[in-house]
Specification:
The chain is 3% helix and 43% strand. The chain is mostly beta strands.
């Protein structure tokens, strides 16, 4: 038992504030800060899709799309735009309307958010493509956040961003999702009430990108030097570019300019993100890069103003359209801050869910027991839905983002299935539209560990068993090694998706690992990158109890 476990068991940490119990986490597999005053991109080698950020004093706060994953709208904090940590989530438990949590809504619910600070409060707006624009707010970015309110109802209204104007008026810019609205490639603006809780005018389309900037979306609203600026991406997620609109009038007409594109670099689709400034007056731009199985990675670009237009990245030919940098000096924020990265490994020594983890749907309180005094999380086997086809239909998947191009995830668990019936399962899973897992199951022949693979999980295809081995005891160490050498999948959109392989192994003593199954090629989920984690399920039968899996630890290493 480590010192933290000992102090908790003695009750000596109970009265300490959370900050006193936390320390900066530094990844073993990806650190953007080079320690010499420079950084490497991506600053976050993880799927923080559609990032947006704001600065309050010396602090930067970022959030991103979370789709059907809960806790949703994870909040990250930084003091220098390079070193980030997760501090909470704006949607901790459920998304409204609240329905049964048994089935995930892949790719739905929380699309591209905007985070802003106004009059002492943080606001996050996001678009639910099936319902409309929602808003939540908080005095403290760590929460609590208010229950979300529906600001503007309508199918296909997405990617909202507010602007509080100098005269007190509040505006909202947004885009449309063609899949729901039957219209895309346009940007629109409406007016909100003073509380920013309700749209008070219809939306007016102020920019049409069909000819020059197709699939324009993800707008962010700013004002500088008497101009209204709308930053937005165009050209498609893996293949596009960054556009800026400007006008002296909130409703236009708007001039437009392409300010960032791939150019001669290896960074495809550099767009959609946040303009932020530092306390020393520098300007920077955060954006994503879609690489396929690893999702949408976050890059940081220097930004300058020239003739009233931003130039993002470097501009070697001087045409005003920048190219991404792969490394650069760190932002000047007035001082130096410690190196840190988002949390990854987990010893499960706490009494709540560590912030890197997300379930695949609204959270059911019966899924887990966070037994910090014992140093494990207990996952109760939960029945799959009657229409179960594969793990795509399972909500109680406990997953986290992949954090680097090459890394190893290892977990220790003890499986205690019920004796009343067979078919309970637990294990280690790499989840996406295709998935693979090391699944430990109580079968008629005893405990069986299998490597299972499901190709076309999103299409309802069944799992295939590649290899199996019998186990005498329920304690086992499960491991998956992710590998990527930079090769691309030619058949992907633009040919930009990375080829990511996963090799599985297991151990009964934690020292000697034996390979099991075949190499699996990871695949992204619905609008998200592949995720790695664990689960515990039982068959879709009516019974008054079941077994469980105690996960002792989950570690990310090289």
């Amino acid at each position: 038992m480590n010192i933290v476990k000992t102090l908790f068991s003695l009750g000596l940490l109970a009265a300490l504030p959370m900050a006193a119990q936390q320390k900066e986490y530094v990844s073993q597999v990806w650190v953007a800060d080079r320690g010499d005053g420079t950084y490497q991109n991506p600053v976050l080698y993880a799927d923080y899709s559609d990032p947006d950020a704001c600065r309050v004093g010396n602090d930067f706060y970022m959030t991103s799309s979370s789709f059907n994953c809960l806790p949703g709208l994870q909040i990250l904090h930084s003091n220098d735009l390079v070193n980030w940590r997760i501090i909470g989530a704006a949607i901790p438990y459920r998304l409204t309307p609240v329905s049964t949590p048994e089935r995930p809504e892949h790719g739905n619910r929380v699309w591209a958010p905007a985070i802003r600070h106004h009059n002492g409060e943080f606001y996050i707006f996001w678009g639910d493509p099936d319902q409309g624009v929602f808003m939540t707010k908080a005095r403290d970015p760590q929460g609590p956040w208010t229950e979300p309110v529906l600001v503007k109802a309508g199918q296909g209204i997405i990617d909202p961003c507010p602007l509080w104007d100098d005269d007190g008026q509040v505006y909202l810019v947004h885009a449309y999702a063609g899949s729901r609205a039957q219209l895309k490639s346009v940007i629109a603006i409406c007016q909100l009430n003073e509380e920013a809780t309700q749209a008070v005018t219809p939306s007016r389309i102020i920019f049409d990108g069909h000819e020059a900037h197709p699939t324009c979306e993800g707008p962010k609203f700013y004002k500088k030097g008497g101009y209204y600026y709308i930053f937005h991406p165009a050209g498609g997620v893996p293949t596009g570019w960054q556009v800026v609109l400007r006008s002296k009038n909130v409703y236009g007409p708007y001039e437009c300019k392409t300010v960032l594109a791939q150019g001669n670099t290896s960074v495809n689709g550099p767009h959609q993100g946040a303009w932020v400034d530092t306390p020393t007056g520098e300007d920077w731009f955060l954006h994503f890069q879609d690489v396929g199985a690893y999702g949408r990675l976050v890059h940081l670009q220097p930004m300058k103003w020239k003739d009233g237009w931003p130039v993002i990245g470097t501009d070697p030919d001087g045409d005003g359209c920048g190219e991404p940098v792969l490394s650069h000096r760190k932002p000047d924020v007035g001082r130096t801050y410690p190196v840190c990265t988002p949390q990854e490994s987990d010893e499960f020594d706490g009494y709540t869910l560590s912030p890197q983890w997300q379930w695949h749907a609204n959270i059911n309180e019966k899924w887990a027991y966070y037994a910090g005094n014992h140093g494990f999380v207990r996952l109760y086997s939960y029945p799959v839905v009657p229409q179960y086809r594969n793990l795509w239909d399972v909500a109680n998947l406990l997953l986290q983002k992949t954090p680097a191009p090459n890394f190893t995830a290892t977990m220790k668990l003890t499986f205690s299935p019920t004796k009343q019936y067979k078919g309970e399962r637990t294990g280690l899973v790499v989840m996406g539209m295709d998935y693979a897992a090391l699944a430990l199951e109580n079968t008629a022949g005893g405990l069986t560990l299998s490597q299972v693979v499901c190709h076309g999980a999103d299409k309802g295809q069944p799992e295939q068993v590649n290899a199996s081995v019998g186990l005498k005891e329920g304690t086992v160490y499960l491991r998956v090694k992710f590998g990527c050498d930079g090769r691309k999948i030619a058949q992907s959109e633009g040919g930009h998706d990375l080829l990511v392989t996963c090799d599985f192994s297991y151990s009964t003593d934690g020292r000697t690992f034996s390979p099991l199954g075949t190499t699996f090629q990871a695949r992204e989920g619905k609008w998200i990158g592949a995720k790695v984690g664990t689960f515990c399920t039982r068959p879709a039968i009516r019974t008054n109890d079941g077994g469980w899996a105690d996960v002792d630890w989950f570690r990310i290493t090289p």
